[in-house]
User: Which sequence fits this backbone?
């Protein structure tokens, strides 16, 4: 593996915003958009404007309108984008039902590629990962259940090239998987997988064993839940009572350069069920054990929390998050609504849902971020709507599109991490192909910097396989395509 110099230190002043102005506008009607399925953002036609798949394909027309493409060749279902054949065009994998792989033909249409029938049956989440660092994207697909009848396995398909995928791994025990997320949380150059399990089951943190397989380090890393007692479930499995996790996210929540985990737990108001968790990555010196920082975070409890997604909506350099609910009214006749929380960087969060004009949205699993109009701030897709970010007071920003060479790293850059140092903070983003339950943020990485006192910045890119690359002289308030060199 090639390694270059470590991350450079730049002494910048990063002014962090302590409050935010109302800035979101529901522009669904203006944009012609209405799509209630889970959201996957990806620029499939390479025109520089990110498109959207919600069970329907929506083409972004220069940030001014979304057109429902009905003749693309894609069927229905929930899907994720990734360039599996490294030809420079995003392909789509739908993980629901028997599963389907659609090859981007480069002319705005897609062709169906033969793919093994999924044993997951009714999967609710999947991710593209390069499990063996051969530059070819593979697939991890979560398996859910048929209530009180059977629980389906998780499965990994390895990309053999030429459009051929072969099953290479199944989970040793069948748990009720919901969301699937992936990141190299321990920095060893191999992407790992976090699986959100339902039915009070412990979650899996699958550490990539570098041999096309995984070791479950959930318990050892304190990321599996808060165990309490033992129960049994369909299929004969026995497990400690933890949470009803629906969707989770990898994200650096405190700008220390380490990728943390947010665990999105649905929880009935009875004892022994985990509430949502904010888990701080302890890093190498602490064996990559996670510390629970939930008690001080300030997230108000709601029963039916479901699918979270992280993004810096106000460009202050700190990750914020949107979190959906799937009951309109919960136990005790209490209304449940999706929420937007603004991060402070010190593991405390402020509810800005009403202030940001996104209050009282209906139940939904849909939640994903992307800059749909290329104005430098993140817009939000949720509840079948697109909320455009219209605040002109946002801080400085930069967007980075990673382009692998198709030999050492996949063309989509999936699994890569970019770190930019600003003062004593390391703003970290990773290219993810799945977040929450079955959603996907834009593959283009977005960084906010507040009132950064600099004109040019440098970034350290860590590609899968630990290929490191320093890129200097990046202009602020601009989008940069960064190829692997």
Assistant:
């Amino acid at each position: 593996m090639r390694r270059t110099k470590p991350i450079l230190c730049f002494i910048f002043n990063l002014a962090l915003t302590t409050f935010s102005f109302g800035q979101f506008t529901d522009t669904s009607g203006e944009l012609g958009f209405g799509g209630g399925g889970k959201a996957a953002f990806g620029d499939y036609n390479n025109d520089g404007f990110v498109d959207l798949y919600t069970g329907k394909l929506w083409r972004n027309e220069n940030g001014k309108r979304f057109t429902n493409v009905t003749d693309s060749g894609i069927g229905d279902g929930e899907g994720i984008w990734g360039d599996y054949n490294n030809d420079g065009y995003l392909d789509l994998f739908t993980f629901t039902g028997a599963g389907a792989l659609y090859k981007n033909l480069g002319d705005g249409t897609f062709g169906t590629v033969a793919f093994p029938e999924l044993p997951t049956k009714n999967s609710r989440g999947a991710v593209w990962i390069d499990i063996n660092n051969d530059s070819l994207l593979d697939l991890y697909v979560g398996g859910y259940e048929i209530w009180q009848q059977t629980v389906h396995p998780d499965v990994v398909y390895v990309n053999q090239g030429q459009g051929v995928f072969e099953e290479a791994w199944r989970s040793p025990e069948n748990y009720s998987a919901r969301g699937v997320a992936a990141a190299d949380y321990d920095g060893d150059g191999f992407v790992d997988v976090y699986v959100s399990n339902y039915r009070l089951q412990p979650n899996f943190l699958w550490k990539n064993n570098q041999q096309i397989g995984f070791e479950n380090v959930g318990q050892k890393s304190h990321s599996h839940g808060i165990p309490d007692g033992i129960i049994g479930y369909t299929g004969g499995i026995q497990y400690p009572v933890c949470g009803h996790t629906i969707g989770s996210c990898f994200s650096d929540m405190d700008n220390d350069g380490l990728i943390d985990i947010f665990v999105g737990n649905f929880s009935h108001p009875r004892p022994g069920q985990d509430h949502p968790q904010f888990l701080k990555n302890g890093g190498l010196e602490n064996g990559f054990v996670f510390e629970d920082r939930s008690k001080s975070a300030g997230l108000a409890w709601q029963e039916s929390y479901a699918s979270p997604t992280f993004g810096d909506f106000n460009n202050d350099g700190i990750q914020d998050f949107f979190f959906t609910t799937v009951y309109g009214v919960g136990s005790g006749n209490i209304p449940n609504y999706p929420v937007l929380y603004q991060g402070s960087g010190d593991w405390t969060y402020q509810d800005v849902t009403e202030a940001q004009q996104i209050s009282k949205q209906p139940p939904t699993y849909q939640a994903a971020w992307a800059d749909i109009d290329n104005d430098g701030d993140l817009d939000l897709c949720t509840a079948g709507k697109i909320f455009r970010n219209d605040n002109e007071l946002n801080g400085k920003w930069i967007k980075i599109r990673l382009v692998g060479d198709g030999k050492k790293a996949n063309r989509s850059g999936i699994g890569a991490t970019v770190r930019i140092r600003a003062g004593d903070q390391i703003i970290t983003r990773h290219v993810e192909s799945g977040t929450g339950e079955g959603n996907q943020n834009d593959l283009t990485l977005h960084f906010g910097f507040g009132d950064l006192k600099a004109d040019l910045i440098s970034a350290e890119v860590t590609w899968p396989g630990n290929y490191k690359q320093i890129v200097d002289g990046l202009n602020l308030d601009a989008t940069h395509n960064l190829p692997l060199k």
Remarks:
- Residues 218 and 365 are 25 Å apart (CA to CA).
